From TrEMBL, chain A:
It holds the Pfam family Pyr_redox_2. It catalyses: 2 reduced [adrenodoxin] + NADP(+) + H(+) = 2 oxidized [adrenodoxin] + NADPH. FAD binds at residues 32, 61, 97, 390, 397-399. NADP(+) binds at residues 169-172, 213-214, 225, 397. The keyword Flavoprotein applies. Signal peptide: none annotated. PANTHER family: GLUTAMATE SYNTHASE 1 [NADH], CHLOROPLASTIC-LIKE. Residues 23-185 form the FAD/NAD(P)-binding domain. GO terms for cellular component: mitochondrion. Belongs to the ferredoxin--NADP reductase type 1 family. This is NADPH:adrenodoxin oxidoreductase, mitochondrial. It is found in: Mitochondrion.
Automatic annotation (TrEMBL), chain B:
Its cofactor is [2Fe-2S] cluster. SUPFAM superfamilies: 2Fe-2S ferredoxin-like (SSF54292). This is 2Fe-2S ferredoxin. It comes from the Eukaryota. The lineage of its organism: Eukaryota, Viridiplantae, Streptophyta, Embryophyta, Tracheophyta. One of its GO terms (molecular function) is metal ion binding. Belongs to the adrenodoxin/putidaredoxin family.
Length: 484, 181
């Protein structure tokens, strides 16, 4: 059986080789896009894959999400770069699906399109005061310190307050807490954007609150990130001992989930008994069982954030099959702060002519095949249109999750090739057509070689400052270096 | 025995918490896959607590052990692995498809392998907290899961069988099921 699969694969490769290649376009060059491209290229010898991205730079959140002090995590870009070097693969940056080119146009040019453009907006809290100066989405703040050109000018005010409140306790929230609290001498050796490093060096923030609407057993972070934030030099960690008391439902959750158990273990040992904080230490407060109620305006600075009102919660639901949910108790308390970061999850953006599930914030799909209408009975498959990564599953999971996600999407593509649903019998213009159209629209495409120029320049600039890389953070600089 | 190992791991976690380093050692600039001696070094730095007893250090250099990889389709590949080399590196040198997104720097969990024999699993040094943190996130975790980049060939591991878990197939259905403890 096993060998049979392999033989089939080889014979398929021969048949496709003789005719025009099957042309597939992958939209988005994050982990989902690159893993899908890699797997298609490996499984199908006669296929050409073009990867487009709206940015002049590849790698998605590996470049603009993964924290600057996590260089080991970014090593995966070596693998992605090898994929991009494949003779049958091309990278075209600065190509924006939905504005440089529409989805129907793209589908016209390729035999198949795989959408992997991630989640570039934010889940909303829907509480009063979100418009106040000093309230930011985590995504924007992360893009700012990671030098994403769209948030170059965010300029979060870190100088007029000593307190930041982060809403949410996922890994993104912990990343942000670490960036705010870590000694800047340590950050200076990373590829953090220089504008962010300068602002952090002048930051007056001493206290960071990480606020979760549920308890320590339900904290969404993982042990690795938690261990790291707890290990920050010269940091006093605060947790209310009463919050660490568990209920039978918590015990069940921990029994069924190794991550929850290990995270709870770390939290419950984070503050040694009898520990008294040293004066002048930075503080990290884990606040549990509190949900955001409203952002409060500052008394002395109109239009600015002065604090966050939280409502105390209790957990409901102790059935082992149902997640415990936070329910408000009508008891409120305020935390004064000048900076609030909403880290409650990302959300994907719809584009024209693409089925989209607004409630879940994903493209409706079955195992990676895009379907119109999520009404189960009338589901219709969009032939030749696939989805992968956060756009397919929602905004959770680590880089590796996208590897398995790509395997699933590949299985759909391979299946459709085998069934003859995707053939190169009706040849498509592919990259030639794409480049012609973009040229006629004066879109400056950033090729792989042009990206390499950016890469080389960033590494050169980084070298001068003793950083692994100094990111170019404006569209102008990126496009200028790319076209040199 | 097996159960006690897991308890020990728990204790391990708690103990090391207080002195937890803010940083795990950085190895990002080391081209791991091309240098056979580095993984061993790294391994030792992570396992500082459980020092290895290298009685036969002298002739270990040239010694090789037999390792069998069982891939996603159940197909076996038998290879010889020099003592001191990591299983990730050995897999790559032998064109075995084991992912290694972070190239052995303990930051990805894609090199997840399942030790197919409990007795062999028990011969391995305990996973460090850092390895356990990554194992937390491994796809299809089992009782005998380890990270391929952290298993270093030792003479006593001769005959090691490692399964590469599949995302699209349920492993248990296809024959191999880790023995319950
Ligand atoms: C702040 C943060 C930190 C993280 N840190 C880690 C970590 O340390 N370790 C880990 O394993 N995981 C981490 N993750 C998770 C990991 O980054 C994601 O699982 C992964 O990046 C999702 O991959 P993706 O390809 O679906 O999306 P993305 O990585 O977001 O890639 C999407 C790509 O599509 C492009 N794009 C968007 N819209 C368009 C358009 N209209 N046209 C063309 N291109 C478009 C974008 O520019 C981007 O390059 C982190 C996530 C976040 C948010
Ligand atoms: N180092 C890493 O491996 C790393 C780093 C960063 C990110 N990532 C991954 O990237 C993914 C995204 O991370 P994330 O932190 O954005 O998401 P996340 O893990 O889903 O966390 C979201 C947090 O927001 C809370 N929340 C959601 N809605 C809320 C509301 N209306 N009010 C109050 N709180 C609310 C959640 O609490 P509830 O649980 O109560 O809903 C949770 O604490 C995760 O899978 C993460 O593991 C990994
Ligand atoms: S290769 Fe990344 S953890 Fe082993």
């Amino acid at each position: 059986m096993v060998n049979f699969g392999k033989i089939k694969l080889i014979s398929r490769s021969f048949t496709t080789l003789s005719s025009a290649p099957l042309r597939i376009c992958v939209v988005g060059s994050g982990p989902a896009g690159f893993y899908t491209a890699e797997k298609i290229l490996k499984a199908h010898e006669g296929v050409e894959v073009d990867i487009i991205d709206r940015l002049p730079t590849p790698f998605g959140l590996v470049r603009s999400g993964v924290a600057p002090d996590h260089p080991e995590t970014k090593i995966v870009t070596n693998q992605f770069s090898r994929v991009a070097q494949n003779d049958r693969c091309s990278f075209f940056g600065n190509v924006y699906l939905g504005s440089s080119i529409s989805l129907p146009e793209l589908r016209e040019m390729y035999n198949a399109v795989v959408l992997a453009y991630g989640s570039e907006s934010d889940r909303s809290l829907g509480i009063p005061g979100e418009e106040l100066a000093g309230v930011h989405a985590a995504r924007e703040f992360v893009w700012w310190y990671n030098g994403h050109p769209d948030c170059r000018n965010l300029s979060p005010d870190l100088k007029n307050t000593d307190t930041a409140v982060i809403l949410g306790q996922g890994n993104v929230a912990l990343d942000i807490a670490r960036i705010l609290l870590r000694p800047t001498e340590e950050l200076a050796k990373t590829d953090i954007a220089s504008h962010a490093l300068a602002a952090l060096e002048e930051s007056s923030i001493r206290k960071v609150y990480l606020v979760g609407r549920r308890g320590p057993v339900q904290a969404a972070c993982t042990a690795k990130e938690l261990r790291e934030v707890l290990g920050i030099k010269n940091l006093a960690v605060h947790i209310q001992q009463a919050d660490l008391v568990t209920k039978p439902a918590d015990e069940i959750e921990m029994k069924n989930n190794r991550i929850r158990r290990r995270v709870y273990e770390l939290l419950s040992k984070a503050v040694p008994p009898g520990h008294t904080p040293v004066l002048g230490q930075r503080e990290l407060h884990f606040v549990f069982f509190r949900k955001p109620d409203k952002f409060l305006e500052s008394d002395d600075r109109s239009g600015h954030l002065g604090g966050v009102r939280l409502e105390k919660t209790v957990l409901k639901g102790d059935d082992e099959l149902v997640n415990q949910v936070a329910v408000g108790t009508g008891v409120y308390e305020d935390i004064s702060c000048g900076l609030a970061l909403k880290s409650i999850g990302y959300k994907s953006v719809a584009i024209d002519d693409l089925p989209f599930d607004n409630y879940k914030g994903i493209v409706p799909n079955v195992g990676g095949r895009v379907v119109t209408d999520s009404l189960q009975d009338h589901m219709q498959i969009e032939t030749g249109l696939y989805v992968c990564g956060w756009l397919k599953r929602g905004p959770t999971g680590i880089i590796a999750t996208n590897l398995y996600c790509a395997e699933e999407t590949l299985a759909c593509i391979s299946d459709d090739i085998n069934k003859g649903l995707l053939t190169s019998n009706s040849p498509k213009p592919g990259r030639e057509g794409l480049l012609q159209l973009l040229d006629s629209r004066n879109t400056k495409v950033v090729s792989l070689d042009a990206w390499k120029k950016i890469d080389t320049e960033e590494i050169r600039l980084g070298h001068i400052k003793n950083k692994p890389r100094e990111k170019l953070t404006t569209w102008e600089d990126l496009l200028k270096v790319a076209s040199e | 025995m097996f159960i006690s190992r897991f308890y020990r791991q728990g204790a391990h976690t708690i103990k090391s918490l207080i002195k937890a380093p803010a940083f795990i050692p950085k190895t990002s600039h080391i081209p791991v896959v091309h240098n056979r001696h580095l993984p061993a070094l790294r391994h030792e730095s992570f396992c500082s607590g459980a020092a290895k007893q290298d009685s036969e250090e002298g002739n270990q250099e040239n010694q090789k052990i037999n390792v069998t990889f069982v891939d996603k389709d159940g197909e076996e590949t038998h290879i010889k692995v020099p003592v001191g080399m990591s299983m990730l590196e050995a897999a790559h040198e032998n064109d075995i498809e084991l992912e290694g997104a972070c190239e052995g720097s303990l930051a990805c969990s894609t090199c997840h392998v399942i030790v197919m024999d409990m007795a062999q699993y028990n011969k391995l040094p305990d996973p460090t907290d850092e390895e356990n943190d990554m194992l937390d996130l491994a796809f299809g975790l089992t009782e005998t899961s380890r990270l391929g980049c952290q298993i270093i060939a030792e003479p006593e591991l001769d005959g090691l069988h490692l399964a590469i878990p599949s995302a699209t197939r349920n492993f248990a259905v296809d024959g191999f099921k880790p023995k319950p403890h």
